[in-house]
Design a protein that fits this description.
The complex is a heterodimer of chains A (273) and B (305).
Chain A lengths: L5 H9 L1 H24 L18 H4 L10 H8 L3 H18 L1 H6 L2 H5 L5 H33 L1 H6 L2 H28 L3 H24 L11 H4 L2 H7 L4 H24 L5
Chain B lengths: L4 E12 L2 E12 L3 E5 L6 H8 L7 E6 L8 H4 L3 E4 L11 H12 L6 H7 L4 H5 L7 H13 L5 E5 L7 H16 L3 E6 L2 H7 L2 E6 L2 E7 H7 L2 E6 L18 E3 L2 E6 L4 H9 L5 E6 L2 H10 L8
Parallel strand pairs in B: 3-7, 3-8, 5-6, 6-7
Antiparallel strand pairs in B: 1-2, 1-4, 8-9, 10-12, 10-13, 11-12
The chains are: A mainly alpha (273), B alpha/beta (305).
C-alpha cells in the first residue's frame, strides 16, 4: 500500500482488474482499427465518383471540419470516437468518478475515511488524480497503439503524421477531462454511484448522439456546441498533425469548471451514509 | 483545552428537512471519563456522534472535541480521535492487514498498539491475510475496534461497539475500556445495550426522540430510579386490585405480580400492599435496564442536566 497517497492507491487498487482489462481492450481495439485501415488500399479511398459521404458521417470520423471517413485520418479518427472507444472511456471515468465520493457515501465507508485527519480537499484531490491516471492510461494505450500502427504502415504514414497521432491523444485526454469534471461534481453531490455512472453516460453517449443529429439536420445545427464531440475532433488532429487548441481549451475548461463545482459541492455537504 | 471537557455539545441541533435528528442537545464529557450515551434505535445517538466527528454539519448549535471544532479544526483534532461507526463498513477487497494499514496511513500517527490489540482480540496473521469480504460480522467488528484504538487516541468515540462480538471478546473489550479509563483516555460509548453501558461507564446520558432526557452517574441512576417489588399471593385467584399501587403498572403472572416503584414511594407502597393477603414479598434494586425503561415510561424527566 502507498502510505503517501493512500486514497489514490485505494481507488486504483480496488478497480485494478477493470482498468487492466480496459487498457488491454483499448490497445487491441485500436490495433484492429489500424489493421482495418491498412487493409484498404489508397486507390479505394476517395473513390466516391464525385460523391462525398454524408456530412453527418464526420461524427464517425472524429471531425468537425472536412475530414471524411473515407480517408486514413478519418478511418483512424473513427477508431477514436467509435462507440467501443466511448464505452471504455465512460466505463473507466464513470466507475472511478463514482468511487471518488458517492460510492463511499453509499457504502458507508466514508465514515472511516473522513473521521481521520483527511480534508475533503485531499479526498477529492487524490481521487481526481486516480481518475486522471486511469484516463491517461487508456488514452496512452490508444495513442501508442495507433502510433505504432502508423509507423509500421507507409501508406497510412503518408497521410497521417505521427505528430497528428499524439495530438489526437492529447485531445483524447482533454475529452476525458471534460467528462471527469462534471462526473466528479455529480459524485461530490450525490449519494449513489448509479447517479454518477448515469450522468457520465448521459454526457458521453447523449453528447455523441446530439453531435450526429446536429451534423445531419441543419435545424439542429446549433446543438452541436453543447456536445463534447464537437470539440473532441481526433480526425482533424490526425489530418492536421497538431493539437486544435481552441477545441482543447473548451474541453479542458468544461473539465476545470466541473472540478471547481465538485470542490464547492463537497465542502458544503454532509458526508454520512 | 481550557474547559477540562473532552466533548462539549451546546444546544446541538441537526434536522434533515422536516425530520429532527437531534434537538437542542447540551452535554459535556469530562476528560478522562468513560461516558455512556444511551437510547433506543432512532433516538439520535448516531446523528450526535456524526455531528461530533465532523461527518454532519449541525443545523444549529455547536459540537467540540478536545476543545476544537470537528469540521473547522478537523486536521488538528482528528489525529487524537479514534472512532468506531455503528454500522461499520469496510472495503471487502482489502485484507484485514491492508485495511489497518490504509486507516493507519490516513490517521497519520504511528499505530503503536496494533500488534497488542490484534493479539488480544484474536486477529492473528492468518486472519489478517484474508480479505475482509470473507470475515464474519464479529471479525469485522474486531477490525473496527483495532482501527479505532491502534493509534492510542486521547478521545475514543464508539457507536454500538460490542455488536457481533462473542462474550469472550466482549470481556476483552471491557478490559480495554477499563485500561483506557485508567490511562486517562476519554471514551464516549453509544449504545442501546444497557448492561454494556452499566459495566463500562461512570456517567450516562439518555436521549429520546433526539432530545436529552437526563445525565446521571450510573450509580445515581440506579439509586434514584425504581425498586422492583415482587409479591406472591399464593391463593391462585390471579390478578386483583392493588389499591394505590395500581399506579405502578403491575405486571401479573398468575397470582404473582411485579411493580417498579420509585425509591421514595417504596415504604408507602409496601404498607398498602402488605395489608393484602400476601404470601411472599421481595424488594430489590432495579438494574439500569429498569431505570432506563422507567425513564422512557415516565417522560416527565428533565430535558437537560
Amino acid at each position: 500500500m502507498n502510505s503517501r497517497w493512500p486514497l489514490l492507491w485505494l481507488a486504483l487498487h480496488r478497480r485494478r482488474r477493470m482498468l487492466v482489462a480496459l487498457v488491454i481492450g483499448m490497445a487491441v481495439f485500436e490495433a484492429l482499427i489500424v489493421i482495418v485501415a491498412n487493409a484498404i488500399p489508397p486507390g479505394q479511398l476517395f473513390s466516391g465518383r464525385g460523391k462525398g459521404t454524408p456530412s453527418a458521417f464526420r461524427a464517425f470520423s472524429g471531425s468537425s471540419g472536412d475530414v471524411s471517413i473515407a480517408s486514413y485520418p478519418g478511418l483512424l479518427g473513427a477508431g477514436l470516437v467509435h462507440p467501443f472507444w466511448i464505452a471504455m472511456q465512460l466505463t473507466a471515468i464513470g466507475a472511478l468518478a463514482a468511487a471518488a465520493v458517492a460510492a463511499d457515501v453509499e457504502s458507508g465507508t466514508i465514515e472511516l475515511l473522513i473521521v481521520r485527519p483527511v480534508s475533503r480537499n485531499r479526498l477529492l484531490a487524490e481521487r481526481t488524480v486516480a481518475l486522471g491516471l486511469a484516463a491517461l492510461a487508456l488514452n496512452a494505450a490508444a495513442t501508442l497503439t495507433v502510433a505504432t500502427g502508423v509507423a509500421l504502415s507507409p501508406d497510412i504514414h503518408r497521410d497521417v503524421p505521427l505528430s497528428g497521432v499524439f495530438a489526437a491523444g492529447v485531445m483524447g485526454c482533454g475529452f476525458a477531462l471534460c467528462l471527469m469534471g462534471p462526473a466528479l461534481a455529480v459524485s461530490a453531490w450525490g449519494r449513489r454511484r448509479a447517479q454518477v455512472i448515469g450522468a457520465t453516460i448521459a454526457i458521453g453517449a447523449v453528447g455523441f448522439a446530439v453531435n450526429f443529429i446536429a451534423l445531419a439536420w441543419s435545424k439542429a445545427a446549433p446543438l452541436r456546441f453543447i456536445s463534447p464531440f464537437h470539440y473532441y475532433t481526433p480526425g482533424d488532429a490526425l489530418a492536421q498533425g497538431h493539437v486544435l487548441w481552441p477545441q482543447l481549451g473548451v474541453l479542458v475548461g468544461v473539465g476545470a469548471l466541473g472540478l471547481v463545482a465538485a470542490h464547492a459541492l463537497l465542502m458544503r455537504r454532509d458526508l454520512s451514509p | 483545552m481550557g474547559t477540562g471537557y473532552a466533548i462539549e455539545l451546546n444546544r446541538l441541533t441537526k434536522r434533515y428537512g422536516a425530520v429532527v435528528g437531534v434537538e437542542g442537545l447540551t452535554l459535556n464529557v469530562r476528560a478522562g471519563e468513560v461516558f455512556g450515551f444511551l437510547g433506543p434505535n432512532g433516538a439520535g445517538k448516531t446523528t450526535t456522534l456524526r455531528c461530533l466527528t465532523g461527518l454532519l454539519r449541525p443545523t444549529s448549535g455547536r459540537a467540540l472535541m478536545l476543545g476544537l471544532d470537528p469540521i473547522a479544526d478537523h486536521r488538528r483534532v482528528a489525529p487524537a480521535v479514534g472512532y468506531l461507526p455503528g454500522e461499520l463498513r469496510l472495503y471487502p477487497e482489502l485484507t484485514g492487514a491492508q485495511t489497518l494499514d490504509l486507516l493507519s496511513a490516513l490517521q497519520g500517527v504511528p499505530s503503536r498498539r496494533r500488534g497488542e490489540l490484534c493479539e488480544r482480540l484474536g486477529l492473528d496473521s492468518v486472519v489478517l491475510r484474508r480479505t475482509v469480504g470473507e470475515y464474519s460480522r464479529g471479525m469485522k467488528q474486531k477490525i473496527g475496534l483495532v482501527q479505532a484504538l491502534q493509534h492510542d487516541p486521547r478521545l475514543v468515540v464508539l457507536d454500538e461497539p460490542t455488536e457481533g462480538l462473542d462474550p469472550l471478546v466482549q470481556e476483552t473489550f471491557f478490559e480495554l475500556m477499563r485500561e483506557a479509563a485508567a490511562g486517562g483516555r476519554t471514551v464516549l460509548l453509544s449504545s442501546h445495550v444497557l448492561p454494556e453501558v452499566q459495566r463500562a461507564c461512570g456517567r450516562v446520558a439518555i436521549v429520546r426522540d433526539g432530545r436529552l432526557v437526563t445525565v446521571e452517574s450510573v450509580a445515581a441512576l440506579r439509586e434514584a430510579r425504581a425498586r422492583r417489588i415482587r409479591l406472591t399471593f399464593g391463593d391462585g385467584a390471579g390478578p386483583r386490585p392493588l389499591g394505590r399501587a395500581d399506579q405502578w403498572s403491575p405486571q401479573w403472572a398468575g397470582d404473582r405480580v411485579e411493580l417498579l416503584v420509585p425509591p421514595s414511594e417504596v415504604v408507602a407502597a409496601l404498607r398498602g400492599l402488605l395489608a393484602l393477603a400476601v404470601a411472599d414479598v421481595t424488594v430489590e434494586e432495579a438494574g439500569l435496564d429498569e431505570a432506563f425503561l422507567d425513564l422512557y415510561r415516565n417522560g416527565e424527566a428533565g430535558e437537560e442536566p
